[in-house]
Amino acid sequence: MISVLPPAPIGFLRAPRPVLMLLLAAFFWGSGNVANKTVLQEIDPWAAVALRCLVAALFLLPFALREARRPKAAYWLPSSLIPSGFFALGLALQQFGYQTATVTNASFLVNAACVLTPVLAFVLFREPPGRAIALAAGLMFAGALVMSGATSSLARVNPGDLLCLLSALAYACWAVTLERHAKRHGRPVATTLVHCMLTMALALPLAVSAWPEGTPLPYGALPEVLYLGVFSTALAFLLTVAAQARVSASVASVLVAAESLFGAAGGILFLGERPGQAVLLGAALMLLAILTVAAATTGPPAPKVIMEKAKRKV
Questions:
Q1: Do residues 185 and 191 touch, judged by C-beta distance below 8 A?
Q2: pLDDT, tens digit, 9 for 90 and up, residues 109-159
Q3: Comparing C-alpha atoms, which of 235, 124, 136 is closest to residue 172?
Q4: Nearest-angstrom CA–CA distance, 203 and 276
Q5: Angle in degrees, 0-180, between the axes of helices 249-256 and 159-185, rounded to the nearest 10
Q6: Is residue 292 included in any domain, yes or no?
Q7: DSSP letter string over 157-199?
């Protein structure tokens, strides 16, 4: 099984490991931003959502079956359906937003979740983010805005931009509800699999009904669908689900917003792009936000499942 965050002694759980996992998830998301846009040249948004979740579910299934051998807490499935619903909503809104939003605007607007998540956590559950996390959220948001160069293009907001902003709100709700589920129940592979299967079940009938009759299979979209399914869906969300058993939703939302940073880094390394001063300034702000979170994050408590096991052993 993929050893994302295996059970370990309570004293072994430390913040840096979830931080690195969330940054890796941000890398997978950032590197998939272009694929999110180009895949729509071959298939419609419902088909893109359904196919990437199908690929992700097939990838995760054998690992989830192995994870299922471990004891399962009561009400695990109903609890997992709540964040799964927000996941499906966020993914669909984001994919539809890419129809008319530029990659630049979409990347920035989806990252608005790093600010919305601490606000939701406080409004819904009275969880103050703390000064360091609030500062980091502001720095990350400002860095994403400066790096994307969206300050001018956002003056002409189109429906795709609005859908991406609504997607950020859905992802913020997902992060807040996921934190409670992950800390209580664990089982990151199975939870991610439920995310993907529920989304696929909702999107597939709509994709089939919207598919033009007589249209050949879109083999040209296969590379994008495979990358989005395995890396930007299965592995990215699996890492996030596992990490949120150890860190708060506010911390996670700030760190995964680094996808803009990794997207720009990929362009520099693999496409030979030359960053301008705005990109460098935005990257500096985002790096400062990451360092702020890493410095402020202490070893969080273990999930209740692990705590109960430890008590029984004593």
A1: yes
A2: 787 888 888 888 888 888 888 888 888 888 888 877 776 666 665 556 678
A3: 124
A4: 40
A5: 130
A6: yes
A7: --HHHHHHHHHHHHHHHHHHHHHHHHHHH--HHHHHHHHHHHH
Q: What is the mean pLDDT of residues 34-59?
A: 91
Which percentage of the chain shows pLDDT scores above 90? 34
Q: For residue 129, what are its two tokens?
A: 């983010």
Whether residue 307 is predicted with pLDDT greater than 50 in this model: the reply is no
Residue 179 lies in a domain: yes
The verdict on residue 6 lying in a domain is no
Q: Which of 174, 152, 190, 163 is nearest to 96 (CA)?
A: 163
Domain that holds residue 261: 22-64+72-210+221-298
| DSSP character string of 83-115 | HHHHHHHHHHHHHHHTTTS-HHHHHHHHTTHHH
> What's this model's pTM, rounded to 2 decimal places?
0.79
3-state secondary structure of 241: helix
Number of domains in the chain: 1
Residue 10 lies in a domain: no
The pLDDT tens digits for 60-71 are: 999 999 988 877
